[in-house]
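Today's session is about reading a structure prediction critically. Students often jump straight to the picture, but the first step is always the sequence itself: look for stretches that repeat, for charged clusters, for runs of hydrophobic residues. Only then move on to the predicted structure, which in these notes is written as discrete structure tokens rather than atom positions. Here is the chain we will use throughout the hour.
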Amino acid sequence: MPTILCGDFNDGPDAVTTVLLEGPADGDVHRPDIGDAVRLYNLGRRLPPARAYSRIYQGHGELIDHILATRDLQLRLVGIDSLVDDITSIGVSTRSREAAIVPDHAPVVARFTQP
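Below is the predicted structure for this chain, in token form.
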């Protein structure tokens, strides 16, 4: 059954909390996983390297917003992007963002082919 889990995880793709959702690395989405009935794959790993972030914290891009999908959806992935064009860097203090209209996170979007 096609399944998507997405949201602001507040952790990077390699953080323990994110990796727990993916399960152990198997490295090959083209073969079915015999260890898990449902395996999730982090589509953020397929983002273009120059756009592989969803927030800028103290000048450094961080991917903390994720889309995880089952194998059947990953195989139908047409494209993925992080719409980072309008976000700005945030710092330790949130005061600089009090009047902000634009969010400090960029949406991560994925497109799939029809089954």
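Discussion point for the tutorial: The first helix runs from residue 16 to 22.
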